[in-house]
Design the sequence.
């Protein structure tokens, strides 16, 4: 029997007129076939997608589970299949599985997995999920008393993708009450995949929204993020350190809270993580905390931060890590200069019995800026004004197109590597 004939037979068997056991058997036979990407066009052409979507509304829990799993397998490898599944009306049916009280934990987990596949890199599909009330249903999967880490992972993955897709989707997650269960998962979940997706979702929700940033802070995101810096998983470290960076940029109060949560030690450890991406993210986070809260310099030094910063600064001016490490060392040296200047100030009062001529004038503190200026990344320039971010990496600045061209030979490999790694991490 040819593949096309077999597929047509399975689709006929899935029809509503077939016995429940026969329909369930057909859906289960389609599950492994759907994983074969080369078969996706034939499965779609045979009409299997519509038959599987129709089965999602059935009262037989085994059939619903098998149909959801088959659609999840089909969409995990093919954007064409995802489009066909959405066109067949799957989104409201899948959200219905999440909402249905009679749905089993396995059904909900598979439904969330299917929504994750559909939302991946697709604004249109993400909007379709929002339009049928999918966001509150997914938030409910994060909250409550369920301890299904698989469901937590898949629901957080969908919401993480949607939060990064558009600001209004992040706002809808906030309005649906997603902040508190999100932070709770960051703080309490033992599953590294859940921690990763939750931290990534929190990072995306902080973007361009002081209100969401305040809500995350009030829910305890800062100590949760700092705790995740010590995770053994590089992907969790990556998201957690970027979240710390984002939060530190928002205000001096949040940067001080990051310092108070004990971030110095874990950040210093990450400078020797062995992952160039994590080390670069860590350098950026250290710079953000120091700029917003200069007193963090003392904790950073006490945690042994000078040695790894000097090592990374030795990578050279064409390296992003070298540039950020050098800037962090500058921030530390300026804070040290301020501390020395402050220690030289004489007491403001003199004994009342001393002659007026005996009162020595106080030595003024040197006029040192509280934070060093940003510097053009072209090592031969040194300009501090008129700087614009590199459009590719968004991590270094140049004062002119000419300086960008001059430094291109030293910067291009690092820029391309950073672009590739960030694309992979956000995917």
Sequence:
């Amino acid at each position: 029997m040819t593949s096309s004939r077999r597929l047509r037979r399975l689709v006929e068997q899935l029809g509503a007129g077939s016995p429940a056991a026969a329909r369930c058997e057909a859906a289960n036979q389609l599950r492994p076939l759907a994983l074969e990407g080369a078969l996706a066009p034939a499965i779609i052409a045979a009409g299997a997608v519509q038959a599987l979507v129709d089965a999602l509304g059935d009262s037989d829990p085994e059939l619903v589970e098998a149909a959801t799993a088959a659609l999840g397998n089909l969409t995990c490898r093919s954007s064409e299949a995802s489009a066909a599944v959405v066109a067949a009306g799957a989104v409201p049916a899948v959200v219905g599985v999440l909402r249905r009280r009679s749905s089993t934990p396995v059904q909900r987990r598979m439904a969330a997995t299917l929504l994750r596949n559909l939302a991946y890199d697709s604004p249109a599909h993400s909007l379709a999920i929002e339009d049928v009330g999918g966001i509150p249903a997914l938030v409910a999967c994060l909250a409550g008393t369920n301890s299904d880490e698989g469901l937590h992972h898949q629901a957080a993955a969908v919401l993480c993708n949607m939060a990064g897709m558009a600001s209004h989707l992040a706002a809808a997650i906030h309005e649906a009450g997603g902040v508190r269960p999100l932070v709770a998962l960051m703080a309490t979940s033992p599953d590294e995949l859940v921690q990763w997706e939750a931290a990534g979702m929190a990072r995306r929700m902080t973007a361009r929204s002081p209100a969401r940033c305040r809500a995350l802070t009030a829910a305890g995101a800062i100590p949760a993020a700092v705790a995740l810096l010590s995770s053994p998983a590089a992907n969790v470290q990556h998201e957690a350190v970027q979240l710390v960076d984002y939060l530190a940029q928002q205000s001096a109060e949040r940067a001080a809270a990051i310092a108070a949560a004990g971030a110095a030690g874990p950040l210093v450890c990450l400078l020797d993580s062995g992952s160039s991406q994590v080390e670069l993210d860590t350098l950026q986070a250290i710079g953000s905390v120091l700029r917003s809260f200069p007193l963090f310099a003392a904790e950073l030094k006490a945690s042994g931060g000078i040695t790894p910063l000097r090592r990374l600064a030795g990578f050279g001016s064409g390296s992003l890590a070298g540039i950020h490490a050098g800037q962090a060392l500058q921030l530390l040296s300026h804070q040290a200069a301020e501390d020395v200047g402050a220690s030289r100030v004489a007491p403001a009062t003199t004994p009342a019995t001393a002659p007026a001529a005996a009162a020595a004038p106080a030595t003024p503190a040197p006029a040192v800026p509280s934070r060093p200026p940003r510097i053009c990344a072209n090592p031969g320039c040194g300009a501090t004004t008129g700087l614009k971010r590199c459009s590719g990496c968004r991590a270094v600045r140049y004062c002119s197109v000419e300086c960008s061209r001059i430094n291109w030979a030293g910067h291009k490999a690092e820029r391309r590597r950073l672009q590739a790694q960030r694309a992979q991490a956000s995917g």
